[in-house]
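>> received
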Amino acid sequence: MSRFDDVFERVIGHEGGYSADSNDPGGETNFGISKRAYPKVNIRDLTLADAKVIYQTDYWDKIMGSALPQPIDEFVFDFAVNSGVQTAATALQGAVGALRDGKIGPKTIEAVKRTPGRNILRLLFVERAMVFALSPKDNLYGRGWFARLFDKTELALRELACLS
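>> returned
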């Protein structure tokens, strides 16, 4: 099983199945894939296998997950899935002192490798918490978002400690 497979299994556990919540900015969603972002996809009939392809291509690959060290890879991937690739990429770049252009490339990866993982996680946590707290939907979804953030932070810190 690849690192992406492991990470995907944990992240998809937070996304849930089909939903047509009128308060959700994504509108109709399934496995976290929204009709707003993928208007040509039949969301109701989306399979987990098809969702996994979307997650790998449009999230994992765009954040260069395979080039990021553990557990930064999973933390940034989950951030991208929950708040958008550009938001997560910009936050990572800010955490490592790279140019905040919203696209992770070789310079960002090098800056990640030079920065202690705990420092990166701390700053990413703050950025992600601010995204949630400043969202107009915080009163509806904030408790779930923050619970997910806590779970991901706890997992990342445990994994970081094991890797040290």
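>> The first strand starts at residue 29 and ends at 30.
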